Amino acid sequence: MSPKSIGGGARQERKPLTLETEAQQVLNELWREKLIPFQLNVGRLTKEEASGNFTIHFHDSRIYSAGVTITQGQKWAEMVRAAVLARVTRISGPLRQIPWLAVESGVCVLPHRPRSNAWPTLTP
Fold first, then answer.
1. Of 12, 24, 41, 67, which sees the most CB atoms within 10 A?
2. For residue 103, what is the enclosing H or E element?
3. What is the residue-level pLDDT of the chain in tens, covering all 124 positions?
4. Residue-wise over 18-49: b if at least 16 C-beta within 10 A, else e?
């Protein structure tokens, strides 16, 4: 039995990845490499007709989108990677800090509640 006859004999051609799928793969790699502070998911991809550049819209409230500038000679994945890393560096302010929650050595610590009824109560 020859190797060609194993698995049906005919080679299946792989369909090329869509731009959205390839962008999501790049986002997953950045998350795995810990280069972005939270996981991102591609919502949709839009192309600007005038410039030919793309905008990746995310399913996330912290970063809504990232602009991908098309550069001749560069791969799509490289351009997405550069655009997302540049966009993440422009995040302003802390990432959703909860004022009463402290983090010590990577562990969330809740505040200590005194045994007395020292907590303020709300009255109408």
1. 24
2. strand 102-104
3. 545 545 555 666 778 889 999 999 999 999 999 999 999 999 999 999 999 999 999 999 889 999 999 999 999 999 999 999 999 988 866 655 444 444 444 444 445 545 555 555 555 5
4. ebeebbbebbeebeeeeebeeebebeebeeee
Both tokens of residue 79? 């351009």
In terms of Cα–Cα distance, which of 7, 4, 24 is closest to 77?
24
> In sequence order, what are the residues at sequence separation of 6 or more whose Cβ sits closer than 8 angstroms to the Cβ of residue 83?
56, 66, 67, 68, 69
